[in-house]
Amino acid sequence: MRRILSYIRPYLRRMGIGLLIKFTGTIMDLALPWCLAYMIDDVVPLKDREQIYLWGGMMLAFSAIAVINNIAANRMASRVARDATRNIRHDLYSRISMLSCRQYDDVTIPSLISRLTSDTYNMNRMLGMMQRIGVRAPILLLGGVTVTLILDARLSLVLLCTLPLIGLGIVLISRKGIPLYSKLQRSGDKMVRTVRDNVTGIRVIKALSKTEHERSRFESVNNEVVKAEKKAGMVMAATNPLMNMLLNVGLTFVIVTGAFLVQDGISEPGKIIAFLTYFTIILNAMLSINRIFVMYSQASASAKRIAEVLDTPFDMPLREADSITTQDHIRFENVSFSYNNVQDSLTDIDFTLGHGETLGVMGATGSGKTTLILLLQRFYEASKGTVRIDGRNVNCIPGDELHTMFGIAFQSDTLFADTIRENIDFGRGLPMERIELAARCAQAYEFISSLPDGYNHMLTSKATNLSGGQKQRLLIARALAGSPKILILDDSSSALDYRTDAAMRQAVRESFPDTTTILIAQRVSSVRHADKIIMLDEGRIVGIGSHEQLMHTCPVYRETARTQMGVE
Hints:
The chain is an alpha/beta fold. The protein has 2 domains: 2-310, ABC transporter type 1, transmembrane domain (ABC transporter transmembrane region fold, Up-down Bundle); 328-565, Rossmann fold. The chain has helices spanning 2-5, 12-43, 49-98, 101-107, 109-151, 153-160, 163-200, 202-207, 211-237, 239-263, 269-310, 369-376, 399-403, 420-425, 432-441, 445-450, 468-481, 498-511, 524-527, 547-553, 555-565, and strands at 328-337, 346-354, 358-363, 384-389, 392-393, 406-410, 486-490, 516-520, 532-537, 540-545. Helix 5 runs antiparallel to helix 7 (163-200). The two termini are 68 Å apart. The mean pLDDT is 83.
C-alpha cells in the first residue's frame, strides 16, 4: 500500500485544504446536538423568544456551513482520487508496455488487464473514501465521545465499554479479509482468461460442437469465483451485524440509565436527547469506519497486485555497446533459446542475410519459426549466441530505434474499428502516397477502390466485414507503409491464392529493393524464389540455401516440396 500511497504526495496541499474544510463541517455537525440540549434545558425554560430565534438561527447556520463544507471537501477528495488514479493507470500502463514477453507469459494478459481496470478502480474508491469518510468518521467518533463525557461522564462510560470490543472485531475481521480478497482476485483473473479464450475462439467452439464442454469449463471457473466470493463475503458480512448488536446493547443501557438519572433529578431531558443523538453519530461513525476497513481490505489486495507490476524490474536491460564490422544486414551467431530454461526451442542457429535479400523460413508447427523473429526483434533474449543487425548486437540497440527498423505482418494480427486508411497508417501520420503504394504492393488497392468509401471505409471490430484474404492484405500494407528496413511476413499470406501471393512478392521486390525480407511460410511456393531458405526441424537448421540447393541437399525440404507441388 505504501508504494501506491506515494501517488498522493503531489496532492498533499490540496488534500490538506480539503481536510480542513471537512474538519470545519464536521465540527459544525458535532455542535448541533449540544445546541439542541442547551435550548431545551436552558433557553426554553426562560421563555425568551429572541434567545430561541438566536439559537435556532445559529443551528441553521451550523447546518448550512456543515453542508456546504462537506460538499466542497467531497468534491476536492474526488478530484484528488481521480488525478492520483489517473497517474497510477499511466505508470501501470507504461510499465506493462515495457514488460518483456517472458514477463507477459509469467503474469498473464488477463491478470494485467484486471490490474489495470478493476484494481485501479478499487484504489480510486479507497482514495476517495479515505478523504471523505476517513477524516469525518474519526472526528465524529472522537468528538462525539468527548462531548458525551462532558455532558454526562456516567452515561459515557456505558458507551465506552463497547468501543474496544468493536475495534477488536474490526481488526480481526480485516486481517482475515485481505488474503480472502487476494484469492478472489486471482480467481477473477482466471475467469477473465477463460472468457477471453471462449469469446476469441467462439467460431471454432461452435464448429467443433464444443459449446457444452466450454460451458462446463466456464461453470467450473465461475463456481470457483463464487466460492471465493462466498468466503470473503461470509467474513466481512459478520462485521456490521456484530457492531450493530454491540452498539444497540450499549444504547439500551444508555436509555435505561438515562431514564433513572432524569427520574432522580440528576440529569436533564435535553442532555439525554443530545446524548442519544451523539450516540447515533458515534454509531454511524463506527459503521463508516467499518466500511473503510472493508474497502481497505479490497484496496490493499489491489495495491499489492499493482505494486507487483510497478516494481517489476526490467529483465532485458540495454547491454554495453557490442558491434562488429560486417557487410551482413542480419546475422545469427550460434543462437540458442529456451522458453522454460529446460528444453531449447532453438539450438545453434547460425546464418547471415545481406541487405535487400529475401530469407524464407520453413518448418513444421513448433519448429521455432516465430521464435526466430521474436529474437530478432528482442522480444526475448537469446540464451546463447548473438543476434546482430548491421553488426550491432540487438541487445545493445534501444527498443525505440530497434523496432522502427521493422515492418511486421502476422497471420492473425489486429485490425481496429476504424477506417482502412487509419488501419494502414497506424497513427504514423504517413502521406497518402505511401499508403496507396503500400496497398498496391500488398494487392489491396483493387478491393479498397471497389468499396463505396474507399480508404475511408469503416471496419468493424476485428474487421469482421472483410474476408480473410482482405484482412491479410491490409496487414501487409500496414507493414509496408512505414518503408521498413526489415520486412517480416509471418505466415501472413496463408489466406491468399498462389497468384495474389506471387504478385505481392514481386511488387515488394520492385518497390522496396533495399528492404530485407523474411518470409515465414508453410508453402514452398511462397519461399521458393527467396535468396536463401532455412528449413527448421525441432528448433535446428536442417537445411539452408536456395530452393534448388535444398531440393538436392535437404530431404525434409524436398519431401515438403514433393507433397505440396508434386515435384521430384
